[in-house]
Every structure is written in C-alpha cells, then in structure tokens.
Amino acid sequence: xxxxxxxxxxxxxxxxxxxxxVAVRLHGGPAGQAPVTVEILAxxxxxxxVAFRARLLALSEARSEEIARLHVELxxxxxxxxxxxxxxxxxxAAEVVAIGSPGHTAxxxxxxxxxxxxxxxxxxxxxxxxxxxxxxxxxxxARDRAAGGQGAPLVPFAxxxxxxxxxxxxxxxxxxxxxxxxxxxxxxxxxxxxxGPGNMLLDGxxxxxxxxxxxxxxxxxxxxEGSVDEAWLREALAADEFxxxxxxxxxxxxxxxxxxxxxxxxxxxVLSVVDLAATLAAYTVECVAxxxxxxxxxxxxxxxxxxxxAFNGCLMTGLAERLAPMKVVDSESALGLPVLAREAVSFAxxxxxxxxxxxxxxxxxxxxRRAVLLGKLSYGR
Length: 381
What we know:
By secondary structure, the chain is of the alpha/beta class. It has helices spanning 50-57, 64-89, 125-132, 142-146, 156-163, 200-209, 221-225, 230-239, 253-256, 258-268, 273-295, 313-323, 331-335, 342-355, 363-366, and strands at 5-11, 18-28, 36-47, 96-101, 104-109, 118-122, 136-138, 170-175, 178-184, 191-197, 302-306, 327-330, 376-378. It has a 6-stranded mixed sheet, with helices on both faces. A 5-stranded mixed sheet has the order 10-9-8-11-12. Strands 5-6 form a two-stranded antiparallel sheet. Helix 2 (64-89) runs parallel beside helix 3, helix 6 packs antiparallel against helix 11 (273-295) and helix 8 packs across helix 11 (273-295). The protein starts with a strand and ends with a strand.
C-alpha cells in the first residue's frame, strides 16, 4: 500500500507581500519520525493589493475592530489561495489530509525577564476550513509559546527533514521580512535562530524614501548600482542590541520596522535611493554573517536561501562574497523547492507531524520547556 499523502501549507510572512499556498505529496515519514520526501504538486502566490498590505503594515496601531476583521479576511485569502493551489494541482479537496497554516503574525513579543511575552497570529482556521472543505491546523505557534518558548522559529523541524545529509552540515536561510537561519548537522537536533532583518528594513526604507512609489528593490538592481555607507553600517551594527542576544532568539516588525528607521532616518534619509538600497542590503548580509560567526561552532558546507530575498541579486551576491568559501545557493536549485514556497512546505510537514502525534517544535531552538504538538484543528466539511 502506498504511503503517499497530500497536504497543503499556507504562509503569509512579515514582508506582507502576499499568500503562498503549496500543495505537496509526502512519501515516507511521518515527518520527524522517518525520512520523508516532498513532491511539489502546485504553488500559488497571491500578492496583496497595495491597500490591504498597508493595513497589515499598520497592525501595530490597529484597533480591536480592525484586528478582528483582518482575522477573518486573512482566513478568506488563505482559503482562496489554498483552493487555487488544489485546482492547479489537479486534485480534489477530499484528497487533502490537512492544511497547515501559521497565520499572519500581527504581534510578536519574545519573552524577557519577568515578562512571558506574547504572539498573536491572524487568519481564522475555521474560515480556511469552510472555504476549502479541508481540515486545517492553524495558530501553530501558540502551543510552543504556552510551553515557555518564543513560538519561533518553527521551520527548523522541517529543515531537518529536508536538509539532513550524511557527512555534511547544511544551513537554510529564509530571507522574508526577517532573516531565519537553521543549521542541520549530519545527526542530532538542528540549531536555529533569527539573524535580524531580512527584507524588512530595505523595503521599508525604499517605501519611505520614495513616498510609496517603491516597495522593494526588484532583483537587487538598485543595490548593485549603489555604494554602502560604511560609517553608518559600522555604527548601526554596533548599536543593535539584538545582534548580541544569545539564542534562543526571535524578532519581528516591532524591532526592525518603522521604529528602527525612525531612529536612523537622519543619516539614512539623505542617501540616494541606490545608496540606501546598497547600505541596507549590506546590513542584512552583515547580520547573517555575524550571527553565523558568533553562534556556530562549525561552518556549514552550504547555505540554502529562500524567501523573497533570494530574488535580490545584491543580497545573494553579498552573502556569497561575505561567506566565501561557503556555497550559497537558492532552494529551487538545491532542493527543488520554489523560494517562495519553502516556508509553506514547512507548515505542511508540521501538519503531517501533528496528525501523527509527533511534536513539531525544537525546544533547544524556541526555548520551550518541552516538545509539544502544534496547532489547533478545524474540521473539514
């Protein structure tokens, strides 16, 4: 009897650029217990329109009514993207075992001394289930938080499934709004932590400098033309307290959103657009490199990059030069996973693990007291 089973993963990251839904067929496993291979059936990217993205970016100032509406509206968008992925894969909803969705992080407050912290994810799992007719595991960060963890990063569980290679240490870097690094040794648990900003500072600064005309450095074209403000880079890196924090650690828009730019805009705001793009791309690259130098005992053989940042040639070239002789490659080339699909695939694997009653968090990564089953189940039709 075939062990093949079909799952979907749905993801909306801190870049607030859209929904990624991926349909996968898993063979082997279950995830986390035995080797598993991932067959990509379909990947659907549904970009957010400008007005909706602006609402997500303004979540830190939103009233309760707006948060409640976004919880429903995101669920609808996740459900619609999942339906599109199911149709593109040429399968029926009844074939889908479950959909894994972490939701869209509205607030992420890591625990500190005397403060347990909090995380709030939007995107109602019941709405997704109603749209698709499929069972949905949503709000997957909450149980790790309840067990004393940060609720992030969670993709290391899946990275261990995807990257484990005898005799080699491989690393995965997701460059969404925030940079997330996972290091997978030949055996034993993975190590993972947030490196700092991914695209968040770069996107926010370009939008601010151009009054919203630009929301990103497409392909890294601007950054490759510009020059880095080395003086600002040195001073800003030295002043960034997050970079000296020991793992477990995670961060978000609360640190690297508008508040960071407000502090530094006197210096950054006078730069040309191309120099601004080059300087903030260099900031991201340096955060990644310093994190690896500071916290890794062994240098990985390979760094597999995914997320929107993998499309930015300035970032990818900067990483390759800064981390040489380490091999830097995107997830499409290394794993056959589209760069915008890797995180969604991770949550499909987490759904597989939860339904098999296998814990999906890595306590040494999140800081949780123990390994726990992740997600809340919404039944299909």
